[in-house]
Q: What sequence folds into this?
């Protein structure tokens, strides 16, 4: 008879086990750092300065609302161009007490950097700090990759949470309750799964301009079904176990049994699927953006960059940057997934009394 | 009982009408004056040599050779239609009426009817003469349900009322509405259809898919390799080859049209010498791609030709249903806040120009005095400050009370996105937020035609004459499915539009058009974007053009068939032999890039 995971923890917890699998573990660390960096992207990739010292005042443009040029003695009333300000002050010796500290890469994701005599896209150039060049409109490719990554990864995570919440809940109830509820939902899911998702997205995005949340909604609407089958079979199996029967006898409600007993025991199934769902979420958003049905312009997006790259193979820095980033992130996620699967692999875990 | 009597009498009435039609042929009015044109200058070159092969490309093989009916509106159709001569056409440089299929024309006093005398020698490609009956049949054909072309059915019933035969070579075309005489030719034109060829029945659409229809133009299809190529051959003794305005033209013997799906591949074919000409209007092609060895060694020449054709009215359309946009000074401030100079200089490589006004390039009808409002943050700020839009939020966008100065700018074509993004970035400097909103093209169209937009970025296709009523009359404001997408409703403008529509005197119409154009421009409901008032091409050096290169109204430099603009070039056989041997031996010639500004209106 299989023993519940708590028994195995005597030897080694899943985390310790995961840590031992170097490839998955380092991928996990790397991905987490990427996510962390992207969360603070405004401090690293931004056209706004981090600190400006002007005369006796200190300014924190990144954290404040738009500061007009006249605030720094410039002849305009729109938001200060800090790159220009830094250059001007560097040239002007009388303003030696003034300084500007710019982020590492002084461009933001929607800013168009155009110059007379040269036309976008511009190839990678260290002097102008476009380390991966600019896109066909003149926006920095690296900056758009970073902000695009942030959107894609949080989109994937949000989508995963929504899908899993409904998928797991409905799946568990199907398995646990069985009977008519199970039959009805089985049929609903079968019918629902056969609706062509892409057409629905095309129709929807012709009716509304899609945004982050509406895309999460639409995709979750057609994505919650996949988890239900796994959870249904998992809870079907657990429902007749002694501990569930015991809980039932003690008068626990269905919700309590599912949340306190069945889901924790089916956790390994859920966790194993997570990395692959994240990868799926990222590729889905990228594909939609590629097909023009995703997030509206000028939102930074990998799909949009990919489209630009494919349309402009003469400018290889666009396509190579995005293809490399996409493959790299998906590879990390896959390695993590592989590691997790290994950890929860019943072959390593289950032993018989 | 009563019913049957009635039906008999109706029946006999029909018989009566039919018989009268047969017995009494229509009579020409006595007081008409036959006109022709033998004075206008010809625009072809006497140096032109006959002979040679021209190879062109199209991006997809036509799904049918029919020119009407399902799938017929494809890019190949113009090759077929250009080989059907019109009765008369307009001189490509002066706009005068010149004879084509008809030798003479005359106007009826009713202002709706034009009489034509068909040239005696006019022949179909199968040798049969073109007669009045072919025009009668054309009307019947275009009205027939068998061709499955509702637009044609409607146009040839509601716009063209009748075609009347006087004798085998004389006809009249009757239009629905009065127009200035010259305009009648355009609005009420009809091309003959070979009656001996078409069999109208329910199977016409499928039976005539791949049949080669007799034509009256200089070339006819001789060979089709489905999915690959279509070959046109010059008719050895074309009936019009010595006619004024048509002689020394249509010089190459053979025109081969190849299907090359991918434009990049097509360009490679061109550089290898497998295509003779290539359109280079797109800035990237003209400036970047056309610098290869064949260009540098002078095998391929480049020519940019400024023309004067109607320019599509493209730009931003401001919806007056938006309460903030109702203020004319807000509209002016927006216009001042749009940095089109930057777009032209830094995105479009300085070779596009700012479109001056809605109707540009309509010849005398265009008001060339009008200039769009310039980019000036100062003027925009002054206007907005005076209106109380003087607070700014944390993003630097202007506010007035609770309202933010923010508009969505909808567009339906991804090609425009770079320009819109740059405009929006720049407008921010004026404290105006423009939020780009891409809508898939059909829903964009729906959104705009139902007037749900704040600001829409689009371009209207051109017409023959300025069209004010559909775009600016209050009849069409605040209604879905009409073209007045700015919802302009101004009584003075309405009055002028009504006058313009009723007038049949050309000079008066021109004056009214000028007045209207400046009144509409003053409303700042349309902010013009850019135009490309030229056509550019690359061509192998053996292709020669007349001294003037092309005509004032040329849309393409190497159009092989068009009745007025086409067929001006020829192939210099000796030059071709020399060039090919030079290419083999690795020699070269002097590179050539010509920019012809003879017809440039606004010199930058």
A:
């Amino acid at each position: 008879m299989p023993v519940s995971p708590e028994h195995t923890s005597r030897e080694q917890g899943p985390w310790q086990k995961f840590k031992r699998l170097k490839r998955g573990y380092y991928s996990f660390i790397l991905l987490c750092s990427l996510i962390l960096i992207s969360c603070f992207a405004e401090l690293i990739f931004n056209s706004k300065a981090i600190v400006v010292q002007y005369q006796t005042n200190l300014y924190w443009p990144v954290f404040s609302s738009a500061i007009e040029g006249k605030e720094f003695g410039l002849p305009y009333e729109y938001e200060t161009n800090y790159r220009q300000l830094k250059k001007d002050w560097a040239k002007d010796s009388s303003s030696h007490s003034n300084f500007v500290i710019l982020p590492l890469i002084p461009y933001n994701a929607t800013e168009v950097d155009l110059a007379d005599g040269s036309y976008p896209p511009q190839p990678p150039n260290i002097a102008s700090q476009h380390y991966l060049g600019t896109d066909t409109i003149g926006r920095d490719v690296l900056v758009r990759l970073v902000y695009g990554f942030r959107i894609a990864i949080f989109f994937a995570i949000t989508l995963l949470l929504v899908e899993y919440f409904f998928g797991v809940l409905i799946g568990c109830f199907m398995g646990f309750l069985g009977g008519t509820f199970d039959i009805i939902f089985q049929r609903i899911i079968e019918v629902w799964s056969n609706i062509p998702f892409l057409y629905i997205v095309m129709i929807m995005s012709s009716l509304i301009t899609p945004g982050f949340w509406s895309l999460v909604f639409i995709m979750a609407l057609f994505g919650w079904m996949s988890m239900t089958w796994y959870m249904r079979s998992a809870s079907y199996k657990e429902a007749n176990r002694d501990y569930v029967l015991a809980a039932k006898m003690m008068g626990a409600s269905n919700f309590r049994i599912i949340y306190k007993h069945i889901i924790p025991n089916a956790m390994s199934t859920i966790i194993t699927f997570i990395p692959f769902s994240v990868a799926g979420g990222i590729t889905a958003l990228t594909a939609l953006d590629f097909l023009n049905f995703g997030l509206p312009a000028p939102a930074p997006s990998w799909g949009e960059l990919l489209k630009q790259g494919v349309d402009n193979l003469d400018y290889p820095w666009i396509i190579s940057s995005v293809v490399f980033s996409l493959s790299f992130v998906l590879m990390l996620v896959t390695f993590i997934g592989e590691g997790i699967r290994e950890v929860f692999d019943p072959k390593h875990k289950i032993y018989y009394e | 009982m009563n019913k049957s009597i009635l039906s008999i009498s109706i029946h006999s009435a029909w018989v009566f009408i039919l018989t009268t039609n047969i017995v009494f042929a229509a009579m020409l009015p006595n007081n008409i004056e036959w006109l022709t044109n033998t004075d206008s200058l010809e625009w072809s070159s006497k140096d032109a040599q006959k002979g040679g092969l021209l190879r062109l490309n199209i991006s997809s093989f036509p799904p049918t050779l029919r020119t009407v009916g399902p799938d017929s509106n494809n890019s190949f159709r113009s090759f077929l239609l250009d080989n059907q001569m019109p009765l008369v056409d307009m001189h490509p440089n002066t706009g005068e009426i010149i004879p084509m299929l008809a030798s003479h024309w005359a106007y009826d006093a009713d202002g709706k009817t034009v009489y034509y005398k068909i040239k005696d020698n006019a022949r179909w490609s199968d040798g049969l003469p073109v007669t009045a009956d072919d025009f009668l049949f054309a009307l019947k054909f275009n009205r027939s349900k068998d061709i499955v072309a509702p637009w044609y059915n409607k146009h040839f019933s509601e716009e063209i009322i009748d075609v009347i035969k006087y004798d085998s070579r004389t006809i009249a075309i009757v239009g629905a509405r009065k127009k200035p005489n010259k305009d009648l030719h355009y609005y009420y034109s009809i091309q003959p259809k070979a009656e001996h060829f078409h069999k109208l029945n329910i199977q016409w659409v499928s039976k005539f898919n791949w049949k080669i229809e007799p034509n009256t133009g200089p070339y006819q299809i001789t060979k089709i390799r489905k999915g690959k190529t279509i070959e046109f051959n010059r008719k050895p003794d074309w009936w019009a080859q010595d006619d004024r305005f048509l002689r020394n033209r249509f010089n190459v013997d053979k025109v081969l049209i190849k299907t090359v799906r991918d434009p990049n591949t097509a360009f490679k074919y061109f550089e290898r010498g497998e295509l003779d000409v290539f359109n280079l209007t797109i800035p990237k092609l003209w400036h970047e791609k056309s610098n290869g060895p064949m260009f540098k060694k002078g095998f391929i020449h480049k020519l940019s030709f400024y023309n004067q054709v109607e320019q599509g009215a493209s730009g931003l359309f401001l919806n007056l249903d938006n309460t903030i946009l109702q203020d004319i000074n807000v509209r002016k401030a927006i216009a001042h806040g749009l940095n089109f100079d930057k777009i032209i200089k830094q995105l479009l490589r300085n070779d596009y120009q700012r479109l001056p006004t809605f109707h540009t390039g309509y010849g005398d009808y265009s008001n060339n005095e009008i200039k769009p409002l310039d980019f000036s943050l100062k003027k925009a700020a002054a206007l907005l400050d005076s209106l109380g839009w003087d607070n700014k939020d944390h993003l630097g966008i202007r506010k007035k009370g609770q309202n933010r100065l923010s508009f969505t700018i909808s567009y339906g074509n991804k090609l425009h996105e770079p320009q819109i993004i740059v405009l929006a970035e720049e407008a921010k400097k004026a404290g105006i937020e423009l939020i780009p909103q891409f809508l898939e093209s059909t829903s964009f169209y729906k959104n705009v035609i139902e007037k749900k937009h704040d600001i829409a970025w689009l371009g209207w296709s051109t017409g023959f004459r300025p069209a004010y009523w559909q775009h600016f009359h209050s009849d069409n404001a605040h209604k879905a499915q009409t073209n007045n997408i700015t919802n302009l409703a101004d009584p003075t403008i309405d009055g002028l539009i009504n006058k313009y529509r009723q007038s049949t005197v050309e000079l008066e119409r021109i004056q009214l058009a000028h007045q209207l154009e400046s009144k509409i421009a003053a409303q700042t409901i349309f902010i013009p974007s850019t135009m490309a008032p030229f056509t550019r091409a690359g061509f192998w050096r053996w292709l020669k053009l007349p001294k003037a290169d092309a005509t004032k109204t040329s849309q393409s430099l190497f159009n092989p068939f068009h009745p007025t603009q086409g067929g001006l070039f020829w192939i210099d056989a000796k030059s071709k032999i020399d060039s090919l041997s030079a290419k083999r031996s690795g020699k070269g010639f002097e590179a050539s890039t010509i920019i012809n500004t003879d017809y440039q209106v606004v010199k930058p």
User: Anything to note?
Assistant: The two ends of chain B are 82 Å apart (CA to CA). Chain B is about 30% helix and 20% strand. Chain B touches chain A at residues 287-288, 342, 345-347, 349, 377, 381, 392-396, 414, 417-418, 420-422, 424-425, 428-431, 436-440, 442-443 (CB under 8 Å). The first strand of chain B starts at residue 53 and ends at 58.
